[in-house]
What does this fold into?
Amino acid sequence: MPPLFTEPGNNLHAPSEIGVDSFQADRSPTHMYRTAPLAGLWSHQKGGFYHDGRFATLLEVVNHYDTQLNLNLSEQDKKDLVEYLSVRLERC
It folds into this structure.
């Protein structure tokens, strides 16, 4: 949802929902992860992507969610999503 391009409503998620350990989440008062807005994607360019920079590329993030959420994305779907995110990254 514009202008920040993040999910509407409650954008906090338990580590188990997104398939990662709770190390970073446990440092917050809620013990949850917040969905990062796409408008802030540029801030991850140098340190890796995801909450803690564990993924070096956007494709690695897409592959993680494809597996974790059983999305069954085709290779073309993944390529298109990475391209969309890359364009968003360039505009920020």
Observations:
- The longest strand covers residues 12-13.
- The chain has three helices and two strands.
